[in-house]
User: What shape does this take?
Amino acid sequence: MHIKHILLVVVFFLLIPIDAEAQCAMCRAVLESESSGKAAEGINNGIVYLMAVPYVLVAGLFYFIYKKMRP
Assistant: This one.
């Protein structure tokens, strides 16, 4: 039952959106020259999605391994 609480907390924190403000130097220079800011927002969202997917896949893999190992 303790593991369920930990898993619930981890999933909760994974679902909280976090604004990221980091880009590479070239991307930042190109995006700062744009006036509307829509491309910058799209690039930031893409970076967050690309970063989150491997963590979700690994967490799912460990969950299924945990379920298989239980009696």
